Each structure stands twice: as C-alpha cells, then as structure tokens.
Amino acid sequence: MKQPECSTQRCSTTVDIDRLYQICSNCAVKDLCLPVGFSSSEINYIDQIVKERISLKRKQAIYQTGESFKYLYAIQSGVVKCCRVNYHGDEEIIGFFLPGEIIGLEAIHSGHYENSAVCLENAALCAIELTGLLEVASRLPGLQRQLVNVMSQRLAVRESQGQQRTAEQRVAAFLLSLSYRYHLRGSIADEFILPMSRQDIGQYLNLATETVSRIFTHFQQAGLLHAQGKKLKLLNIKSLEKLAL
Amino acid sequence: MKQPECSTQRCSTTVDIDRLYQICSNCAVKDLCLPVGFSSSEINYIDQIVKERISLKRKQAIYQTGESFKYLYAIQSGVVKCCRVNYHGDEEIIGFFLPGEIIGLEAIHSGHYENSAVCLENAALCAIELTGLLEVASRLPGLQRQLVNVMSQRLAVRESQGQQRTAEQRVAAFLLSLSYRYHLRGSIADEFILPMSRQDIGQYLNLATETVSRIFTHFQQAGLLHAQGKKLKLLNIKSLEKLAL
DNA sequence: CGCTAACTTGACTTGCCTCAACTAACGTGG
DNA sequence: CCACGTTAGTTGAGGCAAGTCAAGTTAGCG
Predict the structure, then answer these.
(1) CA distance A127 to A72
(2) What is the pLDDT of residue A21?
(3) What pTM does this model have?
C-alpha cells in the first residue's frame, strides 16, 4: 500500500489582493460560513477577524502536518483536501472541503496542524486568527454559537461516518455527500466535476483505487450514474441513497 | 449482522442528591473537564452552569437517539457508551466515554441527540445547559477556549481514527487508547477492567465479535497481554504500540 | 505530439465475516 | 447458597468482499 507522498508546493505569494480583498458581506458563501444570519454592521465587525485573504493555485499547500497552528482558513472558492502521511509512508486523506467550510479546527487544541491542506483547484481562502475570532465571539453570541455549531456538525458527520460498511455503500454515500454539498452552494446537485482523483477517493474511503474504479463502472452499468473521467452525472439519486444506507 | 437493539432503561429518578451535589472544585476530574486551570472563585462561577447532578445505574440511558437536545453531560464517574441503531437494525457504537469527558456535543447543531447514551457502570453525571455554558464562556475567555479545545480534540481524534487498517491494529489502538485515558485519570495504565463486552468492542471497531475474541487470544499467546473475561493486563505496551501503527 | 499520470479491467489471494458448536460466567429465584 | 437458565466469550470451518499484482487504455499536460 506504499503511496508517494503528497506532491505539494508551499504557498509563497499572495496574488491579486485587490480583487480578492472582498469583505464577508459580498462573499458567495457567507451563509454557510461563520457570518450566518447577521446584520450588515455585524458582518463588518466579523470581517475584521479575517487577517488576510489569499489566493492559491492547484496543488499548492495551505499548511503542512506538524506546522504550528496559526490560522483557521475559511474556503471562499475552490476545493481543499486535507491529508497526512502515516507511519508506513501511505497518504491518508482526512477529508475534502468546499467553499464555506473551515479547515484547521482540529489544530486548535494542540497548537499544531495534524494534517496538510492542499488545494485541488485554484482557491481563495480567508485566514482567520483564532484569538480574534474568540474575542469577537464573546461579544456576538450568534458568532460564538455558529462556531460551536460548525464544530458540532463536523463532529456529528465524523461520528456517523465511523460505521463504514461495504465499498459500494461508502462510494455511494461519498458521491451523495458531495452532491448535497454542491447543491447547498447553489450548484446543480446531479452533475458536477469531481475535483479529486480515484486514488484520492480510495484513500479517503479506505478502498483500493481499483475498487473505486470498479464501483464506478458497476454503478454506471446499473444506470445509476454516468462517469467520464472526472465528469460525473448522477442519474438515479433515489437508488444511490438506498445503496448508501 | 442483525443485532438486538440496545437494551436500555429510561432514567427516571435522581438519586442521593445530597451526596452527589458536590461542586466542581471538589470533583476528581475537574482538570480533565471544563473547569481546567481556573481559580476557585471562577470555578464556583462555572459551577452554576451545571443544572443538576444525576446518578444512574448500569444499563440506564441518559438520552436516546432523536430526543431533542437539552443538556450536555459531563461524566463525573462511570463509563458511558454512545450508540445508535442503524437503518438495518444493527447497533453502531459511536464511542465510549470516561470521567471528565463530555457527551452530547454532536447534538448542538441539530438540536437532536444523534445517538443514545447508556451507562456501562453506575455513573454520576453533570447536566450542563448549553445557553448557560455559552453565556459564562463569553465572560470567561478561558472557559470559552476550553470548550473549543475539547471540541477540537474530539474532532482530531475522530479524524485520525478514520484510517482504519487491519483488525489487529484497531484492537491494539483501542486498548492503548483506553489504557492511556485511564492513566490520565490516575488509574493504573496497564491493568484495568474492560467496562464493555467483546461485542461492544467489535461494534465500535467494525469487527465481528469473534474477530475481537480471536485477536485477544492471539495477543495473549504472543505475550502482549493477559485477559480473563473483562479483567485485562497489558504486558507489553511497547509492542502493542508498534502493532497499532 | 509525445510522455507521463490517471484510470480501467482481469486474475488471483487473503483477511475478516458468517455460521455453528461449545464452554464459561453471571445473576436470579427457590 | 446452590441450581439452573441465560448471556457472554471462545474456537473451528468455510465463503466472500476487497486487496494485490499485472497489463492495457485513456486522458491530460508541457
């Protein structure tokens, strides 16, 4: 099961500051992120916890395993994969994160990032300083509550994922989860581009790449989806949901 | 894989209020729970977020899947298992929780407990009202931070557990985790009573009961541990650690 | 346009599950 | 406190889902 280490490049530059330095109130995913349900004056207040907004290219790293914790990152656009290389030299994928989601939460308690975060597409990110966030949160009950909600939901998702069943169930659940999350972000739920490779999916779901591939073909033969490379169309979500249970 | 539903009894009575109504500052696990590193006056303040302290017997339920979220519970003594019955009627075990740990965190965002919590031993619990906790937290930065730390750590543990490898690795890691957590609570690290059944362990680790049993015998033959029923003695923690990697 | 990386497909192997039988431990009532 | 019934744990035999190895195909990038 030896895999090559994540091929990542350290981010070095901040690009296109002018265009990127948009405030939270203009952000496409503000209702999925921290500033959910606030008045515009409150949002401007929340806006101040964003230390900087950065732009990264595909394959660039946001942070690396073991690095000391500096910021939480809210994803404005693009897809991020969080991964680590384990004792045996295999890459383990912790998760894939979409716009509006926050990464780095697991580093808060230890002060070190427990995994690396890499952009799967060109991405825009908001660097959030924890101390500032907590300070503002203690003044804005709604923000404190939203932070706790975000962490609670992430925990709930993880806990429900614990019980992995067959390979088909895992792949079906994975595709549906992606579909649902794209849908929440205003994209079409049943037709999208997979931002990650089959190998990534396998490493995330604890399956061999070949198994993922076989299950794609199998689902396609069963008329559940149409996959060509990374282009994916879900043809029968109801059946996929039954399969995922 | 059909299993009987959790055999639980709903808790009805609050027993021995007088003896149990001890304040946080006297609690054996205050340094593992929320009131970590506070002055005694601050602890008394924190104490007020505990709505009530309850005592439950073995097999009694604290809350059930789907019930609306009322309290977080901090475990004062005893071991609690969190579980749910899935679509197929099988019991899934989400986790086992020791004194000083907090359960119900995953229910915050949805307002409903996502699993049931059952005492594996007679237990004492502190019911914490979330609104009160958040209010006090917004005044005491240290408490706010500790809440976030607890959730962050739980998330980190879950995320690192995602990558399950062989059955032996999972069982070894499980035993070491228990051992370490008992150690943190002042118990002997290498000799303890397993509070849960082989079936529970299997359901938690996604293994058949028989597999768990076989691995116990195998570890015993290899001189790594001595197990007699629920009595367990770890004889070679170093080797177990290597096995768990 | 060519080279490399990603993906697919097939054949074989294996770790864990299932089924089944047996033994030990527990707890409850006589 | 012992007898008995019930539940928990152990051990063995056989099967299957998913992994591994290998070869071939497609897609994507420079």
Answers:
(1) 6
(2) 56
(3) 0.90
